[in-house]
Amino acid sequence: MTQLRREIAVSDGALPGLNLREMPGLKQVSSRALITLSVIAFISAILYAVLQVNVPFSLQPGAPHDDGLFIQHARGIAAGKWLGPYSQYTLMKGVGYPLFLAAVSFLRLPVPLVQALFFTFSVYLLSLVTLYVFQSGVFSILLFETVLWNFGPETERILREGIYGSQFLVSFSFLILALLCNGWRRNLFMALSGVFLGWMWITREEGATLLPAFLLLLLYFGYTNYRSSRLLQSLVAPFGLFLLSFALVPTIVSEVNFHQYHTFSTVDIKGDFEGALEALASIHTEKNVPYLVVSKESREIAYKISPTFARLRKLFDDPGSPYITAWKPFGCQFSQRTCGDYAYGWFVWAFRDAAFIDGDYASAPVAAAFYRRVHDEVEHACEARTISCDHSLIPFMPKMGVQELRAVPKSLNAFFRKLIFKDPPSIDAGPSFGSNEQVQSAAAFLNVYNYIPPPGARQSVPDTGIVALAMHAKGSVIKMYARFLRILIVAGWLAFLFCWGACVWNRTCAAGAIIACAAWIAIITRLALLELIDVSSFSANTDEYMSFVFPLSCFASLVSLRMFVSLGSGVNWTRLLAHFTHARDNSVQELCRLTEKERLNESERSTSIVLANPREIQSPRRFDIR
Q: pLDDT for 9-23, tens place per residue?
């Protein structure tokens, strides 16, 4: 039994177990494999970048909460004015993407080109991870090409999702590479992983959902060092550099915001605003309508208990306030049950706009005080039992009832269809949005000249023949992926479950299984978050929101399958079958022996009972146990 477990444990040629001394160092990778991978990656990167640059973009500077916000903030940073005057838009979203846009504009490079090269670099790092772990150049090249040409995470708009997936993949890869080497390389990779994680943290606001994957890798790192009796020596510096570099990025941004706006935070959509929104959403009403978390009935209750929130009554519910009530139709397009009211996904922005019009955004401290008063007044009424409240356990997450839970299976199926390209990503971003002057100005700032003009404007595509060829090639690749992605992901998931079953049985686990587990955890946590949003707030089933799930699912599936193949090829299946057959025969014989023994014991027990009865002693037939 022990020998069989040892054979399975060493079947993965990369890492026999959780022992750092057996981990392959970077020097063990053959130069030929590394050079071959790098050359092929370089050629593929050029082809990929050329293809992406020739697919037309959709510039939407007229979208003040998305594209237009990022472009405006990037202009302010490039002009040395940071994010401009304080308003409800200033700290609404993270500054990570505007910093990227400002840097690209300064370098006079097209944004689509840099985003494509950034993604290629992230995939190259993933392929390096597999090269160092599995010592197979062919497998690394296969993984690189499979992950690279998955067009799921690509977006033809100026959205932060254009770099968010690449940020995660780079940070994830650098952390794994840090576990595979020693000395100054480990410290360098740890610091780089922390920097990219910090940059990702200031790009989107839900970075905490990705921490379980990183935590698993760090725990594995700590455990291997504990096994090698080098805990303090090997952990203090790398862990310290990782945490320091990670905290440094949001700390610098918070310090700049404090200097500019007197608030030490990266965004103001959390904190006091989040507390006020959660308090309003906790108000219990008799009628629960999905996606209407702060319904008109809830607002009427809030107006009575919160004098601060009551100041917004005319803005929210007065037909003479067209600017705020213009948010209502968006939810109606998503769910007919929300028509005539604010769906939760859009009430967030309507709430901020109403506070701005009311004059509560004179400064960051003034806005924070306003939201704090709303929160305190509602919470005071809840504690006094003036109203009935039902708080959500997850911040920013509405309460979920039976109707929302019933929608979960359908929503999960929709996400899976997106993941396997059953519902393929669109290659047509649609026309640009905004005036022709706004679009041209944004194109000049971002160095984007291949874009779809707004309706009525002159076509800006430089060469329609090349554009048509690029779009046709991209569409063909998407159709090809749609044929095998379902098989790849399902087979990869089953292989992962099998490998982890072997890990549990062996009581040891190879690094490949740990890496695959971390990747699957990141995928599951991301999809779980989007699933909760999709059934409770607004439609989150989009390619942009799924982001890194597309490439990471290919990576996790291929690594899991590679683990399964190496696990199976290293096991003596004849001996394993003979072992289980012998164990089964022994179990049957043991069961027979136990059955015979129990029968004899039962007979002896019956005899002893008869002997213990004095009235039956005279009857010799009672002693006959035959």
A: 434 433 333 333 334
